[in-house]
Amino acid sequence: MHKKKFVHSVNSEDIQHVAEQELGRKPTAKEMKLVEDKLGDYVGWYEAILNTISEIKLKP
């Protein structure tokens, strides 16, 4: 198993895309920094993994 293999990530283009879709514009550099700094507060990685395990019905 590769312990350092990335499975999912968010990059700056993803943030810009969502901002353009939702705000109708690209975020400023200052806004990008604010989103980058706070994004981890809203990404529940443990719950996302647990929900996926449950959905595909992995057995103990």
User: Which residue ranges are poorly predicted, with pLDDT under 50 across at least 5 consecutive positions?
Assistant: none
Strand content: under 5%
Helix content: 55-70%
Structural class: mainly alpha
Tertiary shape? elongated
The count of DSSP E runs of length 2 or more, i.e. the number of strands, is 0
Mean pLDDT: 92
Outline the biggest β-sheet.
Answer: none
Give the helices and strands as they follow along the chain: HHH
Keywords:
60 residues; 62% helix; mainly alpha; elongated
Question: What's the arrangement of secondary structure elements?
Answer:
Elements: H1 12-23, H2 29-42, H3 45-55
Give an overview in words.
This protein has 60 residues and is an all-alpha fold. Helix content is 62%, strand content 0%. The chain is built from three helices and no strands. The protein has helices at residues 12-23, 29-42, 45-55. The chain is elongated, with a radius of gyration of 15 Å. The two termini are 19 Å apart. The mean pLDDT is 92.
Summary of the model, kept short:
The chain has three helices and no strands. With 60 residues, it is mainly α.
